[in-house]
């Protein structure tokens, strides 16, 4: 659907995902994960079929790519405040990395890329707007620094996280956005403030399989291998392993029923329901939940319109 509207590039987490998208017509793919050195040969093979863009944040990795002699396309990953991966844009390593890459006789310097993962710690749209602006400003200022201090032209600036881009006010100076989980959303995103419950597109439909008298809870057939074990934001109250819909068509959740714990196949709901009752769950983390299944059931109301295969290769 997005290709038909003009989308040409895609971001992936793994080379397996990249191969799936390459097989289905995408020819501009960013592997937005620091290069795994033991998989460089795989990356080289795929780059023979499509434009594959790699991400580096260390001189060691850059030099390993350079040593292959292969004309890889390469982004430099910048730390814009998340402090997980990426080089410090105010430090000397970032300048040296940019110099070596821009002067490489074989590698192509595609630009600078970042992920505002610290947006997941923000709460509310105003706080998310601030993170989005911090991300944008950090990247634009680093680009200007490279041009000023190193005479290096940065042709592309790529930013992205689901919360930040759900609330961003402007993107002056940015050339590419990677908006993450905007197509599906989940309960985590509603807590953060990225979206409303009605915006969420993925649910897990389960059934009550056990409800013992006097126990005060029931058991459903959706455990960790359906919902994952992502506990959601640490400040979410009450704590939940998945919210339960009261009225799915209206985006209304139950006030008193939720999934409170999961084991491998079992899920526990904090109040009793009749055996056989259907329970529609809004997962905490739809990326992890979807990865447990082989297909989407595409629904409108009570009708299944289509089934879409989920390619779960690693």
How would you describe this structure to a colleague?
With 314 residues, the chain is an alpha/beta fold. The chain folds into 2 domains: 3-180, TIM Barrel, CATH 3.20.20; 189-309, Lyase, Ornithine Decarboxylase, Chain A, domain 1. The protein has 9 helices and 15 strands. Strands 1-2-3-4-5-6-7 form a 7-stranded parallel β-sheet, with helices on one face. It has a 6-stranded antiparallel barrel with strand order 8-9-12-11-10-13. Helix 2 (40-47) links the parallel strand 2 (28-34) and strand 3.
Can you tell me the residue ranges where pLDDT is under 50 for at least 5 consecutive residues? none
Strand content: 25-35%
How many structural domains?
Answer: 2
Count of beta strands: 15
- Corresponding CATH superfamily of the largest domain: Alanine racemase
Widest sheet: strand order? 1-2-3-4-5-6-7
> What multimeric state do the chains show?
single chain
Structural class call reads: alpha/beta
Brief write-up:
The protein has 314 residues and is α/β, with parallel strands linked by helices.
Descriptive tags:
Lyase, Ornithine Decarboxylase, Chain A, domain 1, TIM Barrel, alpha/beta, 15 strands, 2 domains, 9 helices, seven-stranded parallel beta sheet, 314 residues, elongated, six-stranded antiparallel β-barrel
């Amino acid at each position: 659907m997005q290709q038909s509207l003009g989308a040409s590039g895609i971001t992936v987490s793994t080379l397996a995902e990249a191969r799936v998208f390459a097989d289905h017509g995408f020819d501009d793919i960013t592997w937005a994960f620091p290069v795994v050195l033991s998989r460089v040969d795989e990356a080289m093979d795929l780059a023979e079929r499509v434009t594959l863009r790699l991400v580096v944040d260390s001189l060691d990795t850059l030099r390993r790519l350079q040593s292959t002699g292969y004309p890889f396309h390469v982004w430099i990953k910048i730390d814009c405040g998340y402090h997980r991966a990426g080089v410090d844009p105010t430090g000397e390593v970032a300048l040296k990395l940019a110099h070596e890459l821009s002067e490489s006789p074989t590698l192509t310097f595609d630009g600078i890329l970042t992920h505002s993962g610290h947006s997941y710690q923000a709460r509310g749209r105003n706080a998310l707007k601030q993170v989005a602006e911090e991300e944008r400003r950090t990247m634009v200022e680093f680009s200007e620094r490279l041009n000023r201090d190193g005479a290096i032209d940065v042709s592309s600036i790529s930013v992205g996280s689901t919360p930040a881009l759900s609330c961003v006010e402007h993107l002056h100076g940015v050339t590419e956005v990677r908006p993450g989980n905007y197509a599906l959303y989940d309960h985590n995103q509603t807590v953060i403030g990225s979206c409303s419950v009605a915006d969420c597109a993925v649910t897990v439909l389960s059934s009550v399989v056990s409800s013992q008298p006097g126990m005060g809870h029931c058991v459903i057939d959706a455990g960790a291998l359906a919902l994952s074990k992502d506990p959601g934001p640490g400040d979410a109250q009450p704590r939940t392993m998945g919210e339960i819909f009261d009225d799915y068509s209206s985006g209304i959740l139950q006030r008193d029923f939720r999934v409170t714990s999961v084991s491998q196949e079992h899920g526990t709901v904090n109040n009793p329901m009749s055996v056989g009752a259907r329970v529609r769950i809004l997962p905490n983390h739809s990326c992890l939940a979807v990865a447990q299944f082989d297909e989407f059931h595409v629904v409108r109301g009570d009708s299944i319109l289509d089934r879409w295969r989920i390619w779960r290769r690693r």
